[in-house]
Amino acid sequence: MNGCAWTLIxxxxxxxxxxxAGYAIASNYSSPTFVSGRxxxxxxxxxxxxxxxxxxxxxxxxxxxxxxxxIRSDVYNPGTSPAGCEARLVYNAxxxxxxRSFSDDPVQYLxxxxxxxxxxxxxxxxxxYQTGELGVDxxxxxxxxxxGMIDKMVVDRTELRPQTIQTSQIN
Length: 171
Hints:
single chain; Rossmann fold; alpha/beta
């Protein structure tokens, strides 16, 4: 093999590595396509179960995203909203199938997610995630996509907690 061909192979290999790294980073980050309203300052949310969403880790991922922002959550069935709910979170999602790069096997992914926070009958904030055909984050898991949405929808209460100050006395 001559030097020119070796250089081209090395360049192609390096390019492939950069593309793979980009996909790896993108699969760990996601951002909502659309947000309407300002981030809500809440301490607790009741999540209404949507039986039509067939993604098994959807609600647990939603609860973890809220917990990371210091917000407690309870889950309830439609029509049974607990009396003490500060706000309700309703959601809808749909899945699609696609092919990862260099793979012929179809993979299911969350294609569209809609989240709406409602307080006393008024919509506080809504967010929508919608992947495009070429969206590099389309194969991200539910946790990544929902965390990106929740980050834009609610105030981070972990940053609002009072800081404890330690003092010491010198005798």
